[in-house]
Amino acid sequence: AQSVTQPDIHITVSEGASLELRCNYSYGATPYLFWYVQSPGQGLQLLLKYFSGDTLVQGIKGFEAEFKRSQSSFNLRKPSVHWSDAAEYFCAVGAGYDMRFGAGTRLTVKP
Amino acid sequence: DAGVTQSPTHLIKTRGQQVTLRCSPKSGHDTVSWYQQALGQGPQFIFQYYEEEERQRGNFPDRFSGHQFPNYSSELNVNALLLGDSALYLCASSRMDGNTGELFFGEGSRLTVL
Question: pLDDT below 50 — which residues of chain A?
Answer without folding.
Answer: none
